[in-house]
Specification:
The complex is a heterodimer of chains A (120) and B (250). Chain A is mainly α and 120 residues long. Chain A is 52% helix and 8% strand. Chain A is built from five helices and two strands; from the N terminus they run H-H-H-E-H-E-H. The longest helix of chain A has 16 residues. The C terminus of chain A is likely disordered. Chain B is of the alpha+beta class and 250 residues long. In chain B, a hairpin with a 2-residue loop joins strand 8 and strand 9. The mean pLDDT of chain B is 81. Chain B is elongated. In chain B, the strands form four sheets. In chain B, strands 2-10-5-6 form a four-stranded antiparallel beta sheet, with helices on one face. A two-stranded antiparallel sheet of chain B has the order 1-4. In chain B, strands 3-7 form a two-stranded antiparallel sheet. The longest helix of chain B is centred in the middle third of the chain and has 26 residues. In chain B, helix 1 packs antiparallel against helix 2 and helix 1 packs parallel to helix 3. Classes of the chains: A mainly alpha (120), B alpha+beta (250). Chains A and B meet through helix 2, helix 3 and helix 4 of A and helix 2, helix 3 and helix 6 of B.
Chain lengths: 120, 250
C-alpha cells in the first residue's frame, strides 16, 4: 500500500524520537550506528536495525527535511584510522515531528483505563 | 575461529553493498558504501556494546533483514536515472553477476579442491601448498595485529584558465589519500575545475576526471583552499583554475 506524502512510518518516527533524545543529551551530531544503538536500547532489543532498513529510512528523512547530514572531515577519520562517517543532525522540522509523535503516544490512553461503570 | 567468521561476515556485507550499488551515480553509491563501511567498523570497535551485537550472526542477520530495503532503495535510484544511465546500470550489474559466477566456478575448480565424487580417481588428485600470507601493506586496516595505516597525502598542482594570472594560494589543505583506498590499492589522478570568487574562496568545483574512492577527498580539500583575490584594473574578479590531484600509495 502506497503511503501518503509526508507520512512517517513507525521506524522513521522512532528515529526522530531517538534523535531528539540524543540531541537533548547534547549529542547534536550522530552517525547511523549511534542511532541504531539508541533505537535498540530504547526498545530493549538485542539486535540492531538492519543496514538497508536504517540507511534507507535516514535517506528518506533527509529528503523530507527532518534530518540534515554532512560528510565528516576526512582528516579526522584518517587520524582515528577509521572510515569516514556521515553525521546527521535533527532539523527543526524533525524536532517538531518528534514532539508530535511523543504527544500522540501519551494522548492515546490505554484501553483498560476507559472502564464503563456498570449500572447498580 | 570467531574472528575469521566475523571477517567473513563483514566481507559478505561489503560484497552485497558493492553489488546492489553498482551502476548507481557515483555520489549516491560512494555515500552508501561509506555509511555501511562506517557502520561495520563502529560495530566492531564498540566496547560498550552487547557481545551478541559484534557476532558474525548479528552482522549477517542485519544484512539479510535489510535486503528488501536495499533493493527498494536501488529501485528508487534507478527510477530517478535517465534511460541511458539505467541501461548502463543494468550492464554493470549483469557483468558483476557474471564475474561472481565465474569466480565461484574458478574457486570450485581450483587446484587442490576436492574433486567431484564421480570424476577423478583419488590417485590423480594433486595437492598444492597453501598460498603465502598477503604482504603487510595489503592487510585490512581492521586487523588489529598490524600497526595503524600511515596517513598519505596527494600531490596537488594548479593552473589558471584563460588570460588571467595564476592566483596565489594563501591556505593549502592537502587532500588525504583515504586509508580504505590505500588498502584497496586505488591510485590515480583527479582533475577538478575550481571557481574562485572575488574573496579568494573556492565557490564551485567541477570534476573533469574522476577516480572512484578519491574524488570526494579531492573536492573536500579543494573546498577549503583560500587564495589572494585576483584583481583586474584594481577590481577583484572571480577566476577559474584547473587542479590536478595526484594520489599515489607509498
Amino acid at each position: 500500500m502506497r503511503r501518503k506524502p509526508g507520512a512517517l512510518v513507525p521506524l522513521e518516527t522512532a528515529i526522530c524520537r531517538s534523535a531528539a533524545v540524543m540531541t537533548g543529551r547534547g549529542t547534536t551530531e550522530f552517525h547511523g550506528y549511534d542511532l541504531a544503538r539508541q533505537l535498540a536500547d530504547e526498545r530493549s532489543r538485542r539486535f540492531l536495525t538492519a543496514y538497508g532498513t536504517l540507511y534507507r529510512a535516514l535517506a528518506r528523512l533527509e529528503q523530507m527535511g527532518l534530518l540534515r547530514s554532512r560528510r565528516e572531515d576526512p582528516e579526522i577519520a584518517a587520524r582515528g584510522n577509521r572510515p569516514i562517517r556521515r553525521l546527521y543532525t535533527l532539523t527543526a522540522l524533525g524536532e517538531a515531528a518528534a514532539r508530535e509523535a511523543a504527544g500522540t503516544a501519551t494522548e492515546r490512553a490505554p484501553r483498560h483505563a476507559r472502564r464503563r461503570v456498570a449500572p447498580a | 575461529m570467531r574472528r575469521a567468521l566475523l571477517r567473513a561476515a563483514v566481507s559478505i556485507v561489503r560484497f552485497w553493498t558493492t553489488i546492489y550499488t553498482a551502476g548507481i551515480p557515483e555520489t549516491l553509491r560512494g555515500a552508501r558504501r561509506e555509511e555501511v563501511e562506517s557502520d561495520l567498523w563502529e560495530a566492531q570497535h564498540d566496547s560498550q556494546s552487547e557481545p551478541i551485537r559484534i557476532s558474525p550472526l548479528h552482522v549477517i542477520a542485519r544484512l539479510a533483514a535489510g535486503i528488501p530495503d536495499d533493493l527498494g532503495w536501488r529501485l528508487e535510484q534507478v527510477n530517478a536515472m535517465t534511460r541511458t544511465a539505467r541501461v548502463s546500470a543494468l550492464v554493470v550489474v549483469t557483468c558483476a553477476l557474471l564475474a561472481i559466477g565465474g569466480g565461484i566456478a574458478s574457486w570450485m575448480t581450483r587446484p587442490g579442491s576436492p574433486p567431484a565424487p564421480s570424476l577423478r580417481p583419488l590417485r590423480s588428485r594433486v595437492m598444492y601448498p597453501p598460498p603465502p600470507p598477503p604482504p603487510a601493506a595489503l592487510r585490512s586496516p581492521f586487523d588489529k595485529s598490524t600497526p595503524a595505516v600511515p596517513l598519505n597525502y596527494a600531490q596537488t598542482s594548479y593552473a589558471s584558465i584563460g588570460n588571467l594570472p595564476l592566483p596565489k594560494r594563501i591556505k593549502d589543505v592537502r587532500p588525504v589519500h583515504p586509508p580504505i583506498a590505500v588498502w584497496a590499492g586505488v591510485n590515480g589522478t583527479v582533475l577538478v575545475e575550481a571557481t574562485i570568487d572575488e574573496t579568494g574562496r573556492v565557490a564551485d568545483t567541477r570534476l573533469l576526471q574522476s577516480v572512484p574512492m578519491l574524488d570526494q577527498s579531492a573536492i573536500d580539500a579543494l573546498g577549503r583552499w583560500e587564495f589572494a583575490p585576483t584583481t583586474v584594473n584594481g577590481e577583484a574578479v572571480p577566476i577559474t583554475i584547473r587542479v590536478t590531484v595526484d594520489y599515489k600509495s607509498q
